[in-house]
Write a structure and sequence with these properties.
Strand content: 15-25%
Number of helices: 10
Shape: globular
CATH architecture of the largest domain: Alpha-Beta Complex
Strand order of the largest sheet: 1-2-3-5-7-10
CATH topology of the largest domain: 2-enoyl-CoA Hydratase, Chain A, domain 1
Number of domains: 2
Number of strands: 10
Bound molecules: 4-(N,N-dimethylamino)cinnamoyl-COA
CATH superfamily of the largest domain: 2-enoyl-CoA Hydratase, Chain A, domain 1
Length: 257
């Protein structure tokens, strides 16, 4: 995959990263993950960027999985190395200090579904299809899909998807909580942008703390999670955004974050 196979577009406070290898249904390679990590580094530092949207090029696929043409040559060490690279980059998306929205325009299979699950919010076009087909290849999900899927949709549904390798459509994905909403294909990017813009005029630091509280708090028991939330709540009071937000309310004007 060449560098151009991952496109970055900036539009005001939005950054749109497009997986751009439609001939192979945007299948993920080592190079894709390395380049994605570089783009995330860049966008984290870019103070103009408030929200990142990930999508796939072409009509058919968001990402149809890891690149299967590389699979046959792998030994166990190589497989582990690739899985750990993919997990590191998907963890990076999950811990990214700005919201990341997946705009899922077609197949989100295997590693593609796993990458989408690392995003904060998933919007799907009505033609999108989801699945973890790894068992058909004699492997299991390796990009933390067994963990994120079970957390998102519950153990029973995760096992059904992983054990059968069957695909589900966007409506079913929405029904089980794998995606937040479904829209027609022609409105997908418009909806993703509109949702992102609703976050752009809010406090970036508050959104960062909220993301941290939800993601990390959920990995704790309730009492610890609630305590963690209180610590982050306290940290908000050290920020300029907190002063501005409260002053704006009291002065009956819009806050400028
Ligand atoms: N990898 C590579 N090429 C892929 C691909 C994939 N995951 N998915 C599709 N393609 C390629 C096809 O080979 C075909 O290429 P050409 O023959 O035209 O050269 C082109 O994309 C168009 O695909 P189809 O002709 O198959 O299109 P259809 O509409 O008929 O079918 C499909 C669409 C999404 C149902 C079908 O393409 C499909 O079943 N794709 C595979 C889905 C899948 O099993 N995904 C992988 C899950 S496992 C690792 C590397 C990889 C992985 C892990 C580790 N290492 C290097 C360590 C994989 C993890 C997974 O995600």
């Amino acid at each position: 995959m060449t560098e151009a196979s991952l496109l970055l577009e900036k539009d005001g406070a939005l950054a749109i990263i497009t997986f751009n290898n439609p001939k192979a249904l945007n299948a993920l390679t080592v190079a894709t993950f390395c380049r994605l990590e570089e783009l995330l580094d860049q966008l984290e530092q870019d103070t103009d960027i408030r929200v990142v949207i990930l999508t796939g090029a072409g009509e058919k696929a968001f990402i149809a999985g890891g690149d299967i043409s590389h699979l046959g040559t792998l030994d166990a060490d190589g497989a582990r190395e690739f899985a750990l690279l993919a997990q590191r980059v998907i963890d990076r998306i999950e811990a990214f200090p700005k919201p990341v929205i997946a705009a899922i325009n077609g197949y989100a299979l295997g590693g593609g579904c796993e990458l989408a699950m690392g995003c904060d919010i998933r919007i799907a076009s009505d033609s999108a299809r989801f699945g973890q087909p790894e068992v058909k290849l004699g492997i299991i999900p390796g990009f933390a899909g067994t963990q994120r899927l079970a957390r998102l949709v519950g153990k029973g549904r995760a096992k059904e998807l992983v054990f059968t390798g069957e695909m589900i459509d966007a409506e079913e994905a929405c029904r089980i909580g794998l995606v937040n909403r479904v829209v027609t294909g022609d409105r997908l990017m418009e909806e993703a942008r509109a949702l992102a813009l609703k976050m752009c005029d809010k406090s970036a630091s508050a959104i960062r703390f909220a993301k941290d509280a939800i993601d990390n708090g959920l990995e704790m028991d309730f009492a610890r999670g609630a305590r963690y939330e209180a610590d982050l709540f306290a940290l908000c009071f050290t920020t300029a955004d907190c002063k501005e937000g409260i002053s704006a309310f009291l002065e009956k004007r819009l806050a400028r974050f």
